[in-house]
Amino acid sequence: MDDKKVESLAYLLNRLNQGKVTPELRKEAMEMVSNIDPIELSLAEQKLIEDGMEPEKLRHLCDVHMEILSDELDKVKNHIFEGHVIDTLIKEHDKIKEFLFDLEDINFGIQLMKSKDENPMVIERLLEIANLILDAENHHLREENVLFPELEKRGITGPPRIMKMEHDSLRLRKRKLKEAALKVDEMDFDLLKAEVDEAAKYIIFNLRDHIYKENHILYPTALDSIADKEVWNDMKVRCDQVGYCSFTPER
Question: In CATH, what number is assigned to the domain containing residue 221?
Fold first, then answer.
């Protein structure tokens, strides 16, 4: 990734985060992002975070990028049938995004509480949603063991590598979220709230961003590069062998 592009993005993000996003500033952002390869943008985001930028501050960049690629997901859906490998992955993403909205609501409620006894139902919901988010593991494994290798065979190595790195980081935070939910009777409540807040915010932001990149970049790339229907049929068999999630729609 060109360091000058990263510097330009960082400067633009600082301006976007400092105040009102004017039409002129948004146009400038659209022009800059539209001239950057999607994978370069992913690498730039990663480098900005490594250099100390808070992930939440990348939201403006994600919004702009989403606007540019807003039609990509519709194009994907129009070229696949129900039960296709990609169709199932997209539908699972829709369910996971629902879980993230629930997690956001649950975390907000917990942060307002003074003690765990103030609203026991919220604590119960935390464990339930942590388990559902963890149950997405087979979704990730189908990507890692079936989809990514097929892309790599075709010389597309960057996107799978980035997505796998994000899977690993998210796995760690998902486990931390569940561990916090299970330790509610053992921990100081203020410490518990801090742990839940840190894990929840990381998961919410990064998993939404991850889903966006897969839906709008990785999956369209897969459909463009894997043209043979027999390959997709074989991938479906291998996906069946890996297994599905409790929330996977009926195929």
Answer: 1.20.120.520
